[in-house]
Design brief:
The structure is a homodimer. Helix content of chain A is about 45%, strand content about 15%. By secondary structure, the first copy, chain A, is an alpha/beta fold. In chain A, helix 11 links the parallel strand 9 (about 235-240) and strand 10 (about 260-265). In chain A, helix 4 (about 95-105) crosses helix 10. The longest helix of chain A is centred in the N-terminal third of the chain and has 16 residues, at about 45-60. The interface of A and B includes residues 37, 39 and 241 of A.
Chain lengths: ~270, ~270
Amino acid sequence: MDQRPIGVFDSGLGGLTALRELRRILPGEELVYFGDTGRVPYGTKGKETILHYACQDVSFLRTFDPKAIVVACGTVSANALEELQRENDLPIFAVVTPAARAAVESTRNKRVGLIGTSASIRSGAYEREMARLDPGVRVTARACPLFVPLVENGRFRPGDRVAELVVEEYLTPIKDAGVDTLVLGCTHYPLLMDTVRSFMGPNVTLIDTGAVCANHAADTLRERGLLAQREKGSYRCFVSDSIEDFTHLASIFLGEPLEGEVERVEIWRY
Amino acid sequence: MDQRPIGVFDSGLGGLTALRELRRILPGEELVYFGDTGRVPYGTKGKETILHYACQDVSFLRTFDPKAIVVACGTVSANALEELQRENDLPIFAVVTPAARAAVESTRNKRVGLIGTSASIRSGAYEREMARLDPGVRVTARACPLFVPLVENGRFRPGDRVAELVVEEYLTPIKDAGVDTLVLGCTHYPLLMDTVRSFMGPNVTLIDTGAVCANHAADTLRERGLLAQREKGSYRCFVSDSIEDFTHLASIFLGEPLEGEVERVEIWRY
């Protein structure tokens, strides 16, 4: 048993899709969320910048003495996980490995689609992990740099013509490749799930990386006897930009009204 | 005469449209450009964050002992200019005032359209300045939060279906208002000029804020006897993210191959 909180972070709002899943499967845990809204997006930035930001994000979360950290950001998971794990002596869970495993277990025809930010796709991290798990899987990958701006601007509702056109443009080569599984390699993308599903059709399994990562973290903590013993946990949110702008969209990401106060943190000090 | 350089900055690539104009009209000047590509975009961020970033940008440029600074960013101009001018004892030129003057002088039917980032439109700075110059001008303003991501991702060429659809969506209410002048209140937007012109029609005058700001700065420096005496000046570029990603798009913004080296700067240290 470990009553300490779990830290969760993302470049912005996307990681709230993982927070939501953690709350659902581990209702007794205390959670601390940090969204780096003052520097979002990460996915169009270079590896060096991503690493610098991710280290600060972890340093901030460590001030809460967490028992584990969930990197609820595909870009950080694909570009900075090894460094974060090397420099921090606590469990750090990320989206790449559990998402790759879920995709390899899901595919029947060995054709998997992968979408993510430019930095995630450029890293090759998801492909390497899938190839390690099953060298026979053929991956069709595509960077979708406009998805995060669309989602962060609230443009994810079915019927949004711009979102539909961008989905069509990015996903056409993946659909044409005949994949039966598509990894949404960024925690922002589940917000576009309905539009993506409508384009890809009902026979393609969509892997929600935030959710699989949350489940992987929960399973591991349970195995190690590190879950909290508490009737009902809560969560706190911190952001690096305006609190108002975050609060507005966060409830949509969480699927429920935001609980408690949101606080602003000067992340560049960490 | 003043042989010192002129500093120019923007959140990313957009300000290069002002740098290009400065080089055209003041070929003898030395120019130092900083693009905060590691924290772009500014226009979706809150005022406090924008101010913090802008102060660091100016601090960095001041290490070159410039004779003046050009804020080639609509968002900073609209949200942080007063503070920057109060805290720095050198001429700081920004886009809002010259763009507002150009619009008021251009309009015949007293109906002006204004587009900019969310933070620029929210500030009301352009409208205040136009009302001060001519209270009879009616402004129809619209935030265009997807324009900067489109441009920073190279999606500005005529025929880009997504860019065309976004332009149509944002500009329809402005076109419907019957404006004869449209202020492109962000230095990224001139890259979308052809698509915007094609939608608005040939009878609407487009105000390129980067260019009018460059001309305003040049006129003022000339009046004060602060221009350099030099056959041919040059420019240096600094960015806060990957040099490769910047170099690729910068030549398109400049309309010519990038001259000299680009250097990376850790802007958070300033």
